[in-house]
Amino acid sequence: MALTIACETDEILDLESYIAYVQDKVDIRDEDSIADSAIKLRQLANNRDLIVDRMNHELDDWTSFQTDNFYTSQTMMLGRGNEFYVRANMWLPPAKLSQDQEWQDRLFYYRVPHDHNFSFLTVGHFGSGYETTIWEYDRAGVKGEPGEAVALRLLERTALTHGKVMLYRACRDIHSQEHPKECSISINLIASPPEIIKTDQYLFDTDSNKISANVQKQAAAHIFLCALAQHMGNGATAAVLEKISQTHYLPKVRLAAVTALAALEPEKSRNDVWRSVLPDKDETVRGSAVNVLEGGNAMEIEQMFDNPESTG
Q1: Which of the following CATH numbers is that of domain 3-213: 2.60.120.10, 3.40.50.2300, 1.20.120.530, 3.90.550.10?
Q2: Which residues contact 62 (CB under 8 A, 6 or more apart)?
């Protein structure tokens, strides 16, 4: 389960020293090693000048303001090392107007049960902290399709209070945050090995124990290009799509590529395109090919990739 790690300390660590410690002492692919470093994250959180100093620095130079931040506007990137980074997240109490609450919920991912494709440590740095409900699941055998039933186990409802350190395990722990009572800030150590781009992240419907969406951001971008290619591609595009359909590491992108390639090819050649992916290692890709070759409607598959967001 997601771990709460007891580490009371009054010691203070600066950001540079913390990053150097993680770089030298922590194996970011080993959850036990990450957990063992919790005391150092707590020491960093004890640094009351950390966020204020960074905020003032960023505000003073708009030309370089958070240029390495690919997250939402609730996130402030603090620093990075080899295959990890450190960030701060801001959490706000409920807005007074209902329409503002809806915007706030979307921005901050409030009340959206989700897992992560990376392991991370988090600590309460400022404020009373958000409340969160935590579940776990076994990803083995999970395909990741919206509507897929998944066995979820409720673990606890807790809060990320000031000084509390928790470890969330990649692809196992699911959490749903609630609004805090006051403005709060958490600091995270994010394990970011390159292989996480090949790993899906899911949203869940915890009432029905199902996956509600696949939010693999890398896949969405690649699928979008394939969807665009089937409408605007040329001969050179076809050659690239063929390569993608055979070699891309994500099954959904391979399927998007073969779908686009079939749309570009003359009708008499389309079955050959679909036959080329019959040996694919993923059953969704194989099943789509069989469906088309047995007289199924390829248009349905094409329409799915016309809207890449529908695939997560």
Answers
A1: 2.60.120.10
A2: none
